Amino acid sequence: MDAKICGVKSPKTLSYIVNHEYPPKFVGFIANYPKSKRYLEFEDLKKLVNTNKKNVKFVCVLVDPDDFILKKIKELKFDYLQLYKVGAERTKIIKQNLNIKIITALTIENINDVLGYKDYEKISDIILFDSKGFEKSVGFDHKLLDNVPKSINKMLAGNIQYNDKLDKYIKIADIIDISGSLETLGEKDISKINTFLNNIKKLNYET
Fold it and tell me: N or C: which end of the chain has fewer CB within 10 A?
């Protein structure tokens, strides 16, 4: 099980994560969605990601991005784009133009939303199954993912708690994506991050 910590805003938090004994595989940054309290203006984003990532993959989270923001993001050292509300054909074009790996985010309410993965399975490197909440932590019925083939690299998000028994997700997903539950009073809480990363390490050791 790999982990992604999303919505990082501060250099202190980012430094703690990338230097952790058991760092996550991915860290995500909100680039063009001002409705989110985790949103970063471009200049702040640029400063934040200009750091030694070590072995962590940096993910730029974008909602229906236009060509202007994509051109700006291309300057930065991201490893993945995480795309919400982007059709398959445009995703393919973005991937080719930016020469970057893609996480396609599908927001799930019913089985038809889940089956949307079929449009992206030959384009995207990872499929993220998220809730309809966007910037809010909302869950969905994970049993809807039972029929998604194991060949799909699956990321799971949506109201997952930092201190959950994570073994219940190991048959559902390859990557856990977590953000809101790592926060206290709206800011990332290093003690919660530490608990989560240690739980992921323990889970992988035990399995």
Answer: C
